[in-house]
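Researcher: Batch entry, complex prediction.
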Amino acid sequence: MQVHEYDVVIVGAGGAGMRAAIESGQRARTAVLTKIYPTRSHTGAAQGGMCAALANVEEDNWEWHTFDTIKGGDYLVDQDAAEVMAKEAIDAVLDLEKMGLPFNRTPEGRIDQRRFGGHTRDHGKAPVRRACYAADRTGHMILQTLYQNCVKHGVEFFNEFYVLDLVMTEVDGKEQPAGVVAYELATGEIHVFRSKAVVFATGGFGKVFKTTSNAHTLTGDGVAVTYRRGLPLEDMEFFQFHPTGLAGLGILLSEAARGEGGILRNADGERFMERYAPTIKDLAPRDIVARSMANEVREGRGCGPNKDYVLLDLTHLEPAHIDEKLPDITEFARTYLGVEPYTEPVPVFPTAHYGMGGIPTNVDSEVLRNNTDVVPGLYAAGECACVSVHGSNRLGTNSLLDINVFGKRAGIAAAEYAQTAAMPELPENPETFVAGEIERLRTSDGPERIAAIRRDLQETMDANVQVFRTDETMRQALNDIEALRERYKNIGIQDRGKRFNLDLLEAVELGFLLEIAEVVTVAAIHRKESRGGHFREDFPDRDDENFMQHTMTYRDPESETEGIPGMRLEWKPVVITRYQPMERKY
Amino acid sequence: MAENTQAAEPASKIDLPASVGGEAGGIPSFQVTAKIARFDPERDSEPHWEEYRVEMHGTDRVLDVLHKIKWEIDGSLSFRRSCAHGVCGSDAMRINGRNRLACKSLLKDFQKNPTDPVEITVEAIKGLPLEKDLIVDMEPFFQSYREIMPFLITSGQEPTKERVQSQADRAIFDDTTKCILCASCTTSCPVFWTDGQYFGPAAIVNAHRFIFDSRDEGGDMRLEVLNDREGVWRCRTTFNCTDACPRGIQVTKAIAEVKQALLTRTLA
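Model: Structure tokens for the complex:
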């Protein structure tokens, strides 16, 4: 075992982690631990854009952006946080441009902007051009630009280091982090990183679902690790299903396709969004479009031999326009489905995309231990965190914005904290738990296969906790998850080696997925209303009187929630500043 | 103002052709024989071939074959992968003798007829130290990348708002901004195979991305780096790199443009 010492340890090297590292690395001794090479992070798969009210191409302001974010999130957004994000969006985009990001340009040479779902002029009057973009590879350019700037500033990376535990200690009667325990993929060695501050930026957990736009590596590691340490998770029932995944595959086709004029059609060739969102139609927020698509299929207007998808129609757009603005996603359609988007509509169906919930933080990215108190020295940013700027449904482009605004805030806050804080003492043998788990799994020889359990988990989540949910379906999922957790105790892996043992790490990641799936499902059962990305057929209406609040789920051996022992669920008020909840119509 | 790119409002209803939906419908299945170069550093002194037979489907890719083997036959088969749709650059490997991303290599592209059996050979990319099975040490590759100073270099105070860049200036380096650092190009280059010190195509592509960016002022420094003995002049224009690039970057053309810049610019 090796022990390292840093002021700040950042876990994860996607957009949020690297944006934090650029700030922290210039202020304090910083290490970035990442389970994959930084440039492999899933920020790079984001396509359409990053919204900021630059008003480069038409009138716009941050107040409209704030309103859209809050309404888009079905009023479960903390309004103070949304305001911070929308205001700082402008500098966040300009920061990236100054770092070198090659945005598309207007004829005057300014950053160009385009339309995106739910982003409107003057509180919903019409779509507005707010998304700054680089073709349909905006996330790729953000990831590359942030990595380039990490290289420029000499940020220290530990590549292919899996952080499997957060070390907590008590200082002056308060629990706070003393570092993390990591597993080095190349050698199988355990490392302890002692630090004053820890920033989690580990991304999402979309792999709890089968049909997903998420990378194989998105197994919610940071979310599960903090949860296991007794810290709460907020709003985990809200998961976004992106309307336009390639049918059957889940590969993302950006909302920019609709921002650039693409439309959705059913088997009758009908532009069905005219019925569901008469004002902004195909550019309604994702939860509404995804639900409308699923409803078309359910009512028999789906396409294909199994009538199980709808069509994204770009055929009325000029091929040159498609090539310039949407080159990657049209290539995905050609490569993976053999469809030529110039002339044929593309089969699409909703795909699990983004977890609105996560590790609760305040606007300074400090992690909350309960509804009001922070854990000193612990920070989270990006998809693994819940500020909450996305409420019950995130607007397109606001994730690239979130990672930049709150990644930067986390990096600054962690470094400033470390400048005055003392280095906490490590508890005795901080690696014991991880070393034991690793050895147990590495030598496991039970009859259950990792892939089979993971497949069964993903199938029950797709079948029972997806776009449409009921108490009955979710109870089914919960029963299935409990059975899978039992099976997980009897797994066997085949790779017994120390070096690059990915078999072992898939087993570890499956443990995280099972844990998170249970939290998602229990929180979803508990929320007996429909709001944003959480739609209950047995409670189809929003119920502000009872549920206009965040859920906070804790691991607690003393408690039981929805029949699940070891979990405690509490409510946390929503911060409302200037916008009173209204009916959400588009 | 930007031109209004929104076309006229599309029709509320159209007649769809009967064929709509491409190949998402009936999907044929077929046998795949995969020969994979295996290497366990804790047991083997050199790689050896193992053969696996699996049943796959018409939309599957080589990555799906590798997953099926790992998940159902031999969990010790080791390879990197993440996004699984060609944007993260994790799974570059040598497939049937050519560098490709496993997640972008459709099995049906190795077939004449949709139910024909498929044979594939898969081995690690060449020229970087082999670690295990299909995993190589990427560090020398990223070292070359870092040496060309892959970041915007400017002088003076930053502008209040964005730097202005014309659409034409932005277009000049558009192609080389697509690079995902998968190393397909560099590890397909015969010069790199024989001389691991050569910067290789990927580093030159990323130098190009900044040298031709009108906002950047570090072009001469980068050109000086690439004027080195292990720099751009080692390129023998074999076009392997361009063929290998999963992002369709005109790699050889970019290298030629860097050579041209070296010939026409006065170095500091």
